[in-house]
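Methods: example folding runs. The two proteins below were folded one after another, and each record is reproduced exactly as written to the output file, sequence line first and structure-token line second.
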Amino acid sequence: MSDKVVITCALNGVLTDPNRHPVPYTPEDMAQSTKDAYDAGASVVHMHLRDQQMGRMPVWDPELGQKAVDLIKEKCPDIIINFTTGIIGDDISGPAGLLEALKPDMAAMNSGSLNYLKVRSSGDWAWPPLLFDNPVEKIQKYLQVMYENGIHPECECFDTGIVRSLSLFKKNGLLKEPFTASLVQGVESGMPARTDLLPILVDELPEGVSWQSIVIGRDEVWPVHRKTAEMGGNLRVGVEDTFYLPNGDKVDGNGPLVEEMAKMAREVGREPATPAEARQILFGQ
């Protein structure tokens, strides 16, 4: 099904202020935003759980997660559910407990460590420099939970060394097929969002693995996604990654972003996959 493309909606992320940006965080709003994306062509929804007071900080509450999933499934019964697991430190009990309780179809797993940095125009740090630590021992714990609960791993790669590590994980037996590779581009201290880099990254992936681009930013997002579609990769878009359409307009939610992504995919000769087709592409089911 090389003419089919899996479109993931990156539903909300964390930390961005819902009073300033259109990020859903209540289960009801998450479900409606997912339906908007589903109707526009998304077959996968990648989600974070946020605190229900300010709507910004990450939480790992299985009851909240179950309510969000139930409401999403009422509106989109066949959509593929993908939960984040990203957390700093070696205590993964929160995300692991969420995966064990909800058993989503997929889970995103940061597959290596990164100095997470950003500098303001003044030269000051945008936030105190921090290490997004994901050593092999932590990755192994995540994969054990995923495999025990029938969850498909999505390996997020923030730099070229992490991309290359996937082949080592596979050779070692730590990572088993099928799995998905995500090329995360646009984080200031990670891989840049550049179309000329994309063929090199894909060439370093394990042979035959399904892959997608995750592109963080504004104007640079859309050319990389178009190149991804032309190269046979899958696509992800949503307000976790960008708030802007190719023409520079700011969106009011996920639906318009997915609609634009589906339009772009069709322009290069690919049709958005249905959830059933996406399951075949990603899971071999």
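Second run, written to the same file directly after the first:
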Amino acid sequence: MQSARSGTTQHLQDDELPLIERAKRYIFSYLEDAPDFTVRQTIRRYELGPAGKWVQRDTIELEVTYESNRGEKYKIISLNGRPAVGATTLDSLGGASSTGEFVTAALAIFAPRSRALFRKGPRDQINGVATVIYDFKIKREHSANLITETRSGRSTVAGYSGSLWIDEDGHILRLEQAVDDVPADFPLNVAELAIDYDWVQIADKRYLLPKRAEVIIGSDKDRHYSRNVVHFDSYRKFSSDIKIDIE
């Protein structure tokens, strides 16, 4: 296994870099180039029923604002098609929730503090595009992956591992990750995330952004699991002449 490091490859052109280094360079350059934008995010939340089938609990619609100097901000628009009166955050609705499906999840993998270990895997295709799968692992002592159990209000940092699907230009087209190092006394031991990325037009440019995500959170001990299926649409540029109140 090898660790992705900066410095030793900075003098190389992109097409001379190992593919995982191209992906790393793209993610960090994205922070400089991405516009501030808003997007509509629809979350369908499910719980695993006694028959082993997913039963839909509710549907939440949010407006997400991404600003390069502030990160991601979330505003609840509706719950089950009606105004979410009194609900200002996902946590206030109870149940399973997640944030960070934009730059945050991928950026955390390549952050120097994460000391991620990468291993090159097989080739695959995403929507007809050739990719190479890279597996990764981040130990708990280097992780920034915070998971919260809403019923008790307890939080912990967990180690995790997963895979990246990277095209020949270093673009990440799919990300999968799951916790694999959780304190034994923590009430949750399952937290999985998958994100599919696609090209989105914002103003006069195209950007690689999430189109769909799926989150599964639960406890093997209690046999209780929640699943969120997230869709993103209506991307548009955010500017100061668009007024959005964020709590």
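Comment on the second run: Residues 17-234 form one domain.
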